């Protein structure tokens, strides 16, 4: 293993974080708040540790798959460690465990928080908190690749390590252009939402921080009551639109913008994604109209926002879903498990895997009816390899197993069952809120210290889709088998 190569690439990630901290310090300077010094100090620490390997370690022509894996996971862990420094320096509610939890929640775009009074934080710190979403949303590695010099094969290894395996088919052999596509769509959507929210009455700070959280499908808000604080239908509609868009495969969005919008509806994954959301919204609105709200439009307003929020793993809140009926809460749990499409910033099992499993079930039923028939496994116009189906099923089983184990461990630490289960679902899916005391208008401060570390681990497992993080902690996978 060529450790100096690892240091070089992770050094660049630290420099990227240092730049984010400097921008946050600039915001702090504009508002003349108390976070300026701690943000500058954090930026200095990140810059010092990031600059030396960039200066003294030569750029390699190639990196192996194993090195790419270690760079990927190491960069995530280093970013989370660095991200907690401003919180620790601020103090208050930020104990070491709370600072780690908040930082991991930010970078993994989970949006779960330990804060009971978000509005008491200075603007500079709130900006950094939102910026961790934006940096983590597209993937720290992919974001870095979009601004790094050309790296040949190394670029492809890092890119493929970061992207979900279900999303890579659309990007085969086009790594450089793919990274540019992601960057353009990501930045473009952010800018559009900022403009739309400002048009609806938000100031630039709230518009920018909430756009960071929406496009990254994160959920950190600058307000204690999240989006409910604004009490604006227009703002909710804008955010709902961008939540839906951010849950779509970014390559498909780019194709649609480039004049191939008809290809969107041809995708069975996209059709299922929108159809499932539409059915979920209708069912929740009807149920809430019966059990919670006096008018259908009011039920539709709050039900649709909350369901889209968890269904895209964003985690914003316009109402307190913890007091809703069990039927709608079960819908929220289902969409917290599934979430949006592969190739987006969303977490969860992914709608793609649900479609693959559904198609496999239908194929198996046909095979049972006609045992000797040769029935190809097709989705849309494409024939799917059996490996894709098997990997999807295995991932879903592993995913549910992690949720079960995390729930079991949380209950063992003294957490109530409702909070333990929905907290595990929410953090594994990078969704944010659960139910009970950790509901949409609650927070995770009441979770035990051990529980917060468990949930931090599930956030990372969900963001890195289990395998990368597990392999990182198995030493034999650190071996480099390729010769250079």
Structure characterization notes:
The protein has 484 residues and is mainly alpha-helical. The chain has a domain at 3-213. The protein has 21 helices and two strands. Helix 1 runs antiparallel to helix 6 (123-137) and helix 9 (175-199) runs antiparallel to helix 10 (204-215). The chain is globular and about 70 Å long. The N and C termini lie close together (11 Å). Residues 149-153 and 480-484 have low confidence and may be disordered.
- Which secondary-structure class do the elements indicate? mainly alpha
Beta strand count: 2
What's the average pLDDT? 87
Strand content: under 5%
Pattern of helices and strands: HHHHHHHHHHHHHHHHHEEHHHH
Q: Roughly how many Å is the radius of gyration? A: 22 Å
Q: Walk across the major sheet and give the strand order.
A: 1-2
The biggest beta sheet, please? 2 strands, antiparallel
Poorly predicted residue ranges? 149-153, 480-484
Q: What is the end-to-end distance?
A: 11 Å
The percent range for helix content is 55-70%
- What is the overall number of helices? 21
Task: Please describe the structure with a list of short key phrases separated by commas or semicolons.
single chain; 484 residues; mainly alpha; two-stranded antiparallel ribbon; 2 strands; 1% strand
Secondary structure blueprint with pairings:
Layout: H1 3-31, H2 36-56, H3 65-83, H4 85-90, H5 96-107, H6 123-137, H7 140-145, H8 153-162, H9 175-199, H10 204-215, H11 233-246, H12 250-260, H13 262-266, H14 268-291, H15 296-311, H16 326-338, H17 351-369, E1 378-379, E2 382-383, H18 386-412, H19 417-428, H20 449-463, H21 467-472
Antiparallel strand pairs: 1-2
Helix pairs in contact: 1-2, 1-3, 1-6, 3-5, 3-8, 5-6, 5-20, 6-10, 9-10, 9-11, 9-12, 11-15, 14-15, 14-16, 15-16, 17-18, 18-19, 18-20, 19-20
